Fold this sequence. Notes:
By secondary structure, the chain is mostly helical. The protein has four helices and no strands. Helix 1 (10-26) packs across helix 4 (61-76), helix 2 crosses helix 3 and helix 3 crosses helix 4.
Amino acid sequence: MFKETPILNPKNQEGSDQESKEERAKNIELTFGKYKGKTLGTIYSENKDYINYLVTNSKDMKVVNACKYLLNLEMVA
């Protein structure tokens, strides 16, 4: 059926998946608190302490998980 055998490159797929997870985390917009209306990416670049605060104090698990993900990226880099 194929003239050439298709080759999948898992590194490229993983990299793009990693980027999309990071972008999704950074694009979450807060609907509460002192940074209401700002994205986690903006808050992360302005005030990483607030990201730590959100991990322990936010009731929104989507925000908590995204903050943990962003902080974990910092540790890995």
